[in-house]
Amino acid sequence: MINSLTRRLAIAFCLAAGSLGMSSADPAPQQISEGAAPTAGSKTLEDLLKETSFAYKKLKDGVFKVVAEGDGETSVIILQENTARWKNKDGSPIKYVTLFTSITPAIPREQKLPAAMLSRLAELNDRFDLGNLGLSVRENEQQVFYNAAFYLRQADSNLLDDFIAMAHYRRLAARKELLPFLQQASPSGGQ
After folding, report:
1. How far apart are CA 172 and CA 103, in angstroms?
2. Domain locations in the chain?
3. pTM, two decimal places
4. What band does 189 get if pLDDT is binned at 50, 70 and 90?
5. How far apart are CA 9 and CA 20, in angstroms?
């Protein structure tokens, strides 16, 4: 649990960051761990997850589903450990983590997204210092999502906490901005 002073400082930074809280000063979710000191390249994503207090489920090797909570909301965030095609100078593999979370529900592919929504999505991306919003278009559906990545080389559980917190709070802020466009475009006025 975060101590009272730290929590107040996090909230103050968030409020100072702007109306959407779209900076790296986003407050951390309620599940926080102290973490361990970084060790160069020795930890896997699963090792780091074990050091946090986040609930997670292993979906397959190197892929995990994490549940983050904060501001009365819950986000499901998918994290995946990857190996780059290139190597370090010493020949060792370069490992990194990608993470993503859905902003909008799945939208039928044939539904044209409002131009104002796409414009707002681009504006929000301009404000992000880490990570970005994207539009995934698959065979039958499309969906807006948030994604980010970091190298495992010097990562520790505190860094993982930060990226999960950032994904959660940016998801909440982006939903607040983008979902009204979909509600207006929907024949029923809802999702």
Report:
1. 8
2. 4-185
3. 0.74
4. very low
5. 17
